[in-house]
Amino acid sequence: MKNILFIMTDQHRYDHVGYSGCGKVDTPNIDRISQGTAFTRCNTVNPICQPARTALAAGRYPHQIGTLAMSGDFSLQIPTFMKALQKKGYQTEAVGKLHYLQTWHWGAQRGKVLDLTGLNGKIREYGYDYVWEAAGKQLMEKSYCDYSRYLEDRGLYEQYLDFAAASGPNYDTPDKRPQDNGEPFPLPEEHYPDIVIADRVIERIKNRPANKPLMMLCSFLCPHKPFDPPASYLDRQEYREEEDFIPGKKPLSEEDKKHLYRKRRAYRAMIHLIDDQVGRLFKVLEEEGILDETVIIFTSDHGEMMGDHFLIQKSVPYKEAVTVPTAVRHPDYLTGGVNSSPVELTDLTATILELAGLDPQKALGREWPAFNNIIPCRSLMPIIRGEAGQIREFAFTECSNEWQMIQTKDWKYIYYPARNMEDSPAELFFDSSKDPEELVNLAGRSEYQEAVEWCRSRRISVMDTTLAAQLTWAPLNLTE
């Protein structure tokens, strides 16, 4: 069985990797992963951190596992790919951001509200033999994690929290303030979270068990807000004033643009830092003599609007938020293939299981309680091996109870449920082949009604057939 190195970033746009060909940023080390197969139309199943990450662990849609929004905790009763790999004999480890727990309410005050270090044993019950957790830059204001303790041991914890808090809350449009201004990381560079995460991953790879294959989740915190690269990375990044924003509901002011130019620069700098860490990971695999025995997967949980459509952050169905950079480097299939068929983030779950010789339905499904045997993820290996051009006709994405989306190679359909009995549902439909910026809603055009109806029926089918799993809590008194 191959080792698996699963690299994740946080809030990373599809067009901000070198192999995308978009020219936004150079990422030579990440591009090495695309020596296998790059997937240019991989859609997250939910453009919010926790729902995407929990769905990825389970291989199911967020509505199936009760994590539609960033609220509440991922149930330990749900089978995960990590548990399946453990049973198969893998050493399963995670370093960096997991975000399976969102216990605290948004109104909670700053402090050690959720002690992730104290919950390490419970978090490992998701299927990890080892966990070193970094909660996320903004989440650290209320979630005390291993990276928090790392900073606290060095007398840097409160200084970092002050910096994160100063970046302000998250808004959805670029004209709202306060917003972080692309200020550099306030601590010495060696303490930057993604450098520390890479340090720990390298250490764990070097000290891996000799008698087991390794599945390592390396989950970086960048390029998520705050836009805070170390000064050396920010200084090396060119400042550009490129007025290529996709138009939105209102025009960007000059002040908005200046602010976004600074954020774009910092965003690229953070990605350059991640790329350097990926280079370090390649180096340790080569030094340990296991590069040819390791499958490397790269993806993100969702993207970032960065001013396009007069929006920032995520949670919307535009491709800048929904499509994520994805590539799989299988050492036996270094074809440099580029696949543009629609796939889902959770298809990586099924891919990992197939790499371990496991069937996703059997590994993630349960006969009881009801609806636990509905596993929609599909392995990408037929594409990677060159046996198929696509594994699904469309990708499905949802977000909170706000909208659901069907994405094919050429079409995008978005459904907005009615908010009350007096309202009617709303629909958007884009012809992606002719309108890649998703500007013209064609839902009412007669010539597209057949395509709209096709997508509409697929959305209904997904919602009707992927039901929420029922769970248990009462202990049974079983006798032999």
Automatic annotation (TrEMBL):
<dbReference type="GO" id="GO:0004065">
    <property type="term" value="F:arylsulfatase activity"/>
</dbReference>
<dbReference type="InterPro" id="IPR050738">
    <property type="entry name" value="Sulfatase"/>
</dbReference>
<comment type="similarity">
    <text>Belongs to the sulfatase family.</text>
</comment>
<dbReference type="InterPro" id="IPR017850">
    <property type="entry name" value="Alkaline_phosphatase_core_sf"/>
</dbReference>
<feature type="domain" description="Sulfatase N-terminal">
    <location>
        <begin position="2"/>
        <end position="357"/>
    </location>
</feature>
<dbReference type="Pfam" id="PF00884">
    <property type="entry name" value="Sulfatase"/>
</dbReference>
<feature type="region of interest" description="Disordered">
    <location>
        <begin position="168"/>
        <end position="188"/>
    </location>
</feature>
<dbReference type="InterPro" id="IPR000917">
    <property type="entry name" value="Sulfatase_N"/>
</dbReference>
<protein>
    <submittedName>
        <fullName>Arylsulfatase A</fullName>
    </submittedName>
</protein>
